[in-house]
Amino acid sequence: MLLAYRLLRLVETHSDALATALLEKTHNSPRLPDYNNVPPEELKQRVYEIYRHLADWLLGKGESDVEERYLEIGAKRARQGVPLSQLIWAIILTKKNLWDFLKKEAVLELPVEIAGELEVEELLDQFFDHAIFYAAVGYERWVVSDGSEPVGKVSTVR
């Protein structure tokens, strides 16, 4: 777990540069034409907060925290006129941006280091899978509610 924590701290230390890189990738992606409806500083701040506190998100916060955050993001993107497919792609791009950084920056040679990377990968997969699910639920709720603020928690089976 120590190596996993070190990798997460590496991400947190470079969170501003990671958020800036993601903003550029989002702006240049042909799959995200409607993300120009999202103010760039808002997008950068949201992503920065995730990257900056990644260890907390992966190790300290529960699924209910991810649910709350991404229900809100999904509803907000629906209000901004971003199609659901683009919202999902932006979350995938956020994860890819993170992995591209880790592959470039984290030099792993020993078996224990590779095991630590796999542990981080599993935690990230779980986090981003939940993020995509709850963002889609928040988006769908907003669409179904005809623009009135959606309420209620998602019933999940764990």
Description:
The protein is mainly α and 158 residues long. It has a single domain (2-144), classed as Globin-like (Orthogonal Bundle). The protein has helices spanning 2-13, 15-28, 40-52, 54-60, 63-79, 84-105, 111-144. The protein is globular.
- CATH homology group: Histidine kinase N-terminal domain
The number of helical runs is: 7
**Unreliable runs:** none
CATH uppermost class: Mainly Alpha
Structural class comes to mainly alpha
| CATH fold naming | Globin-like
Number of domains: 1
Average pLDDT reading: 86
- Please compute the radius of gyration using only Cα atoms: 16 Å
**Count of individual beta strands:** 0
Order of SSEs: HHHHHHH
Q: Report the sheet with the most strands, covering strand number, pairing sense and barrel closure.
A: none
What is the percentage of strand-forming residues? under 5%
Descriptors for this entry?
158 residues; mainly alpha; Globin-like; globular
Explain briefly what this protein structure is.
This protein is mainly α. It has helices at 2-13, 15-28, 40-52, 54-60, 63-79, 84-105, 111-144. It contains 7 helices and no strands.
Q: Helix and strand layout, with pairings?
A:
Elements: H1 2-13, H2 15-28, H3 40-52, H4 54-60, H5 63-79, H6 84-105, H7 111-144
